[in-house]
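To whoever is on call:

I kicked off a structure prediction for a single chain this morning and the downstream step that reads the tokens threw a length-mismatch warning. I double-checked the sequence; it's 169 residues and nothing unusual in it as far as I can see. Pasting both halves so you can look.
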Amino acid sequence: MMTNFNDQLIELVNQDSDQQLIFDCVSEILRDQVGYKLFTILGFQNSRRMVSRLYSSDPVNFPVGGFKALGSTEWGAIVLQKGEVLIAKNKGDLRRIFPDHTLLLNMGLGSAVNIPIKYAGQVHAMLNMLDVEGFYNSRSVHKAERVAELLGPVLAAEKKVKFYDCARE
């Protein structure tokens, strides 16, 4: 039941739990309530136009850490700059939207949803879920948006943004 998972996540956040524990809980919630074959969380630092992978369900192909300059991408403009949800419904969308589409397609992925994690009107990160072609719809997106709403304050809190320190990159 979504409420039980949300309650568990809220409890972890309120207990000031370790960020990894919170992300593990988010991964479990989204796997069980929405579904994915690949799940990542990207942190975002707007002032430096940098992103960093904070969490990955597939650390071999999509490792956690490091920083990458945010180039001119459709997903960056929609999700990180405008703060809107992006749905890639099929393989054609993946090819058009994501620079690493070859790897995604070779992994059998054919659709994606990217959801901004916001707090006080600012985007701090994004949830990324990928699965087979046609997998995501408005109902699944709504469930994931509810989880993203709970993460906003966590990622905005000063003590939780150790991954944003990219001044020396």
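Update from on-call: the warning came from a stale cache, not from the record. Cleared it. Sanity check on the structure: Residues 158-169 have pLDDT under 50 and may be disordered.
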